Amino acid sequence: MEIIEKAAAKINLGLNVIGKRPDGFHDLEMIMTSIDLTDTLTFSSTNDNKITITSNVPYLPTDRKNLIYQAAHLMKKKFALNQGVRIYLDKIIPVAAGLAGGSSDCAATLRGLNKLWQLNLSLEELAEIGESLGSDVPYCIYSQTAFVTGRGENVELLPKFQGFWVILVKPQISVSTPSIFKQVNLAAINHPDVQGLRQVIIEQKLSEIPVLLGNSLEAITARQYPIVDKIKTKLINYGADGVLMSGSGPSVFAICRKESRAKRVFNSIKGFCNEVYLVRTL
Ligand code: C5P
Asked: Which of 45, 155, 177, 238 could form a disulfide with 265 if both were Cys (CB 3.0 to 4.6 A apart)?
């Protein structure tokens, strides 16, 4: 049997850091939504009791360091399974970009193995299993617009965030999420109105979204990597409705309601940065 799962990239329309927790993580308030920039994972059964990962990119680890491996290992252990699995990853989402690519591959592995091994677990149960693997994994199990709180484990599904085009720009740098979180000073960072974002999505007053976009981590990453602000300024000047850095960066996205405007912004920013995508929200 062969199972195919898509793993979608996410962007944060809002990310507010509320506090530091005793376990070293931070309590967050986020609005996350998924975009049609996806990896594809193919799962097939083997008789050798091993987890074998291959992919189209040479730079990704295929051993225990990979979240896909960790997800498969956890499922085998938790359900005392002796089956082996071969997993092929077709990687499209940029890595270390603030797009939860690794977490989404991990979540797709939990969903895929649930089907391959006929475990009949619900999405809620898979999200709970995913908590220990990474903070963004519970959201990625659902990969639909949500208000996410705690460390990332509380996922309240919201109505869809549709009708916008997204121009995604990935500068040629990689950002370490722990190093950005380490620099958080709760009194100094900005605290975007994520509750307000939640409300306008519930009420589907989507034209109010662009002014509410906000990310507590943006100024920290931008201080270290000035390219983030440069990209933001260009996207605004080219006519985007709203712009924001996603997660801990460095990816920056612009949203536009009109297709013609989105295409203009996309074509203009392509001259400045070579990793640019024009996508839609899912
Ligand atoms: O959970 P994940 O492995 O994705 O987190 C990566 C790093 O991001 C953590 O080691 C931590 O430094 C930081 N983090 C945090 N608070 C969160 C999520 C992540 O401090 N809620």
From this structure: 238
